[in-house]
Design a protein that fits this description.
- The protein has 384 residues and is of the alpha/beta class.
- It contains 13 helices and 14 strands.
- An eight-stranded mixed sheet has the order 6-5-9-10-11-12-13-14, with helices on both faces. Strands 1-2-3-4 form a four-stranded parallel sheet, with helices on one face.
- α8 links the parallel β9 and β10.
- α6 crosses α12 and α8 runs parallel beside α9.
- The model has no long low-confidence stretch (mean pLDDT 91).
Length: 384
């Protein structure tokens, strides 16, 4: 079964592995959304008598070609693990080497100790930088971004644009950082752990936006996701005209994708959005004007959480379902961070959006209920 179809049937939070024998199959499985690979059979086995064997060199090549965990399968016994040393395999899968033994507990312990001795690799996890404001209540901003990134399999880093004093009932204070200090944060990240993607969220001034654009241009940053946080859920304008102008002039042309909600898309496109056709028209205007892909989010008073992706003159819909949960604080931050995580891991934009929407739905369906206002989602819903 196709991985995408399996994930659709199983729902969010399930770990899906794919068996493979070649580098090509491994890359295709990773691109399709597999969580791990089973490579083999490595040795003759009673449970896989009709399969051909995979060489140690092929196992090594597969481990080098992908970023998801690789498990060696087929005929594995304790005395057959050492030859796999140096391949980069993360572990082994066994059946009879444990269940066919008279002392199952002792056999499992021996296999575990042997695998820990000879297997495992130091893998470079994909990385994402979030440039956004801090949310002291933890539901949005930097805090939501980092939780989302961890849950989506990447290593998150941050450059904070402002401190906020806020909770589920509202914001009581904002303390912006200086442009010089924001530049220092970005430099510190790029000079040591280069991000595979960048997510940009709340930036309160044109001066800070200009610093971000200059530093990202200097480092030739890739996979930039811009969440144009311009208008609050209550309808309040969050950016002044100078900041909006800098956003349009500097950040949007750098973006791989921008993720406006409907009020923000209206500001950026200059048209009023009242229908699905209006969403398409607005996204087309923004994309042509600024040269980036546009994900116009329909969950804000329209379209029952269906989102429109417009890129390269064409568009596609990502159908969603409205989840009856009043706790939606940080949904925009979460979605854009999940998209950036997907792009960092090598998924296409369409795959990254689809996976991000699936993750967001799972976080909402967990029905976390904290605070007396519009509370946060459960970003760690997949964690027991």
């Amino acid at each position: 079964m196709d991985v995408k179809e399996a994930r659709r049937r199983l729902g969010p939070g399930k770990i899906i592995g794919v068996s493979c024998k070649t580098v090509e199959q491994a890359k295709a499985a990773e691109a399709g959304g597999a969580d791990y690979l089973g490579v083999g059979a490595m040795y003759p086995t009673d449970t896989k008598s009709d399969t051909s064997q995979v060489t140690v060199e092929t196992l090594k090549a597969i481990c080098r070609a992908v970023d998801i965990p690789v498990v060696a399968i087929g005929g594995i016994r304790a005395d057959r693990i050492q030859p796999l040393k140096g391949t980069g395999a993360d572990g082994v899968a066994v059946v009879s080497a444990i269940f066919g033994q008279p002392d199952i507990e002792a056999a499992a312990r021996r296999l575990k100790e042997t695998a820990e001795m000879y297997l495992g690799r130091h893998r470079r996890r994909k990385t994402v930088l979030t440039i956004a404001g801090s949310d002291s209540s933890g539901g949005a901003g930097i805090q939501a971004d980092l939780k989302t990134m961890l849950a989506n399999g990447v290593y998150g880093m941050s450059a904070i644009t402002a401190l906020t004093a806020q909770n589920t009932t509202g914001v009581s204070g904002i303390f912006p950082v200086t442009p010089e200090f924001l530049a220092m944060q970005i430099d510190s990240v790029f000079s040591d752990i280069r991000p595979d993607a960048v997510k940009i969220g709340m930036v309160s001034s044109g001066e800070l936006i200009r610093v971000i654009a200059e530093r990202l241009s200097y480092y030739k940053a890739e996979n930039i996701v811009v969440d144009p946080v311009m208008i609050s859920t209550s309808g309040s304008r969050l950016l002044d005209e100078d900041a909006v102008g800098a956003l349009k002039e500097l950040l949007l042309p750098m973006a791989a994708v921008a993720t406006p909600n409907i009020p923000e898309a209206e500001v950026l496109s200059g048209i009023c959005i009242r229908s699905s056709e209006d969403m398409v028209r607005a996204a087309e205007i923004i994309s042509r004007e600024y040269g980036c892909a546009v994900l116009c989010k329909g969950g804000h008073r329209l379209n029952d959480a269906n989102d429109l992706l417009y890129r390269d003159g064409g568009f596609c819909w990502f159908m969603g379902r409205r989840i009856d949960n009043p706790n939606t604080h940080g949904t925009g931050c979460t979605l854009s961070s999940a998209i950036a995580s997907g792009l960092a891991r090598g998924y296409s934009l369409e795959q990254a959006v689809e996976r991000a929407k699936e993750y967001l739905s799972g976080a909402l369906e967990a029905m976390l209920d904290l605070g007396s206002g519009s509370g946060p989602m459960d970003h760690g819903f997949q964690i027991p």
